[in-house]
Design goal:
199 residues, mainly alpha, Ferritin, 5 helices, 0% strand, elongated
């Protein structure tokens, strides 16, 4: 199937990738807590790890929003699956928190934008989840490149863990997109798809 234009089906496009810049302000959120800094962790990598926490927490909230919408529309098995996705994203945020704490740096507790809470249907949620996982993968690839170029081999092992997880995330969402393409989006097909998530 042509993956370059399937987003046109619902008239939406994937969100633009967020541009990550190293903060230069003197606010408490742009520095390690209490002014401590570990010489093994560059300022740029520190900022990217805090950004990773923010993005994983946002992903958790977005998938929770999708779960609630699905539950309210009668897609009970899909709702349970997206709630599981939400819980997994919180765990992914904790990976970066744990890494920062092991470096003696207190992680940020970032502000989060509110995710949307209205969707066109289960196919819309599937496509938006697919687009979101592509965005997250690009962010983690940037983190991995930065770790490699700065010679931070310890951080690179963490990014490898994230990248391995993204292969699994992409496989899940790719499979859902493929099922929409193969079996259609009528009510019966969507009912069968929702029921399949109970297994």
């Amino acid at each position: 199937m042509d993956k370059t234009n399937f987003f046109a089906k619902d008239g939406t496009a994937p969100r633009k990738l967020k541009q990550v810049t190293v903060a230069t302000s003197t606010s408490s959120q742009s520095k390690p807590s209490s002014g401590r800094h570990n010489p093994l962790l560059s300022e740029e990598c520190l900022q990217l790890l805090n950004y990773r926490i923010q993005q994983e927490d946002y992903s958790s909230r977005m998938y929770l929003s999708m779960s609630l919408w699905l539950n309210n529309k009668g897609y009970v098995h899909s709702a349970a699956l997206w709630k599981t996705y939400s819980e997994e994203e919180r765990t992914h945020a904790d990976w970066s928190r744990t890494y920062l704490l092991s470096m003696g740096v207190q992680p940020d507790t970032p502000e989060l934008e509110a995710p949307g809470n209205d969707y066109a249907g289960l196919p819309d949620i599937i496509r938006k989840s697919f687009a979101h996982e592509i965005e997250i993968t690009e962010q983690i690839k940037d983190l991995a490149t930065t770790a490699m170029m700065s010679g931070d081999h310890m951080l690179y092992t963490l990014t490898a863990h994230y990248l391995k997880e993204q292969v699994e995330e992409h496989d899940k969402t790719q499979n859902l997109v493929d099922q929409l393409e193969a079996f259609g989006e009528d009510k019966i097909a969507l009912r069968l798809l929702d029921n399949s998530f109970a297994q």
